[in-house]
Amino acid sequence: MSNGLDSVAASAGRVRRGARSAAKPSARATRGATPRRANARASRGPSPWWGRLLVLAAVVLVSAAGTQAWVALESLPVKRITVTGALEHTRKEAVQGMLQSSLSGGFLNADLQHMRRQLEGLPWVHQATVRRRWPSSLEIQVIEQLPIARWGANGFLNHEGVVFRSDKQGNWDSLPLLSGPEGSAPALMARYLRLAEILAPLDLSVKELRVDERGQIDAHLATGLRLVIGSEHFFERMQRFALIYRRELATRVDEIESVDLRYARGAAVAFRDTSQVAGL
Q1: What is the pTM of this model?
Q2: Which of 96, 191, 193, 223 has its CA 20 to 30 A from that of 74?
Q3: In the listed set 103, 122, 144, which residue is the last one of a domain according to the structure?
């Protein structure tokens, strides 16, 4: 019995010693691990800083190329100026010549807004538009002033009541003459347009329209008739004149000197024959 137990104990001891031997690595295996780790580090390749340097160098090259291209574009001259628009009083050569001093900086540096203001400073230019057209042209569109009436000695009024002046000779007598204090042009132009609208169905037209410092408005018609309109109720008074003219005055227009509309009702009519005066 004791011999059997001794055999079991001896076998268990050999098993434990074998397990301890398997768990403990050999010195040779341990010594061989160091070269493998070194080889792994060597296989990782170059440092990541090299990649960053390459990217930075590429950015610098691209920036330099872009700068050179921009400098080359800036130096491009304007080779052609095209002027369009229905021009009657403005010469295309004058427009092109005026802009030459603004083109010294080249195609891209040309100040288009400054050029537009230069052109709109010309007497007969109402509006100008300046555009670039690649690669080296400027396109200019000009809208001329449309004179609606004369203003003073050598001035004109456009449809907005803006005064512009010109020394250009022409047959301007067919345009009505408007006059008034400084700053009154826009309001007087509005009155003229309304007056012309009311008189057109009566086959009458305005030759001269004036406003004085007190705001009193007088109109002289092409027939020689004078209308004293006053400073108030402009539209109502002109409507009243149209009604009276159709009923009473149309057949005697050549005999009438003036019609005074400064009344609450009716009008005072003065005839060329001074012996006749009528209140209507």
Answers
A1: 0.66
A2: 96
A3: 144
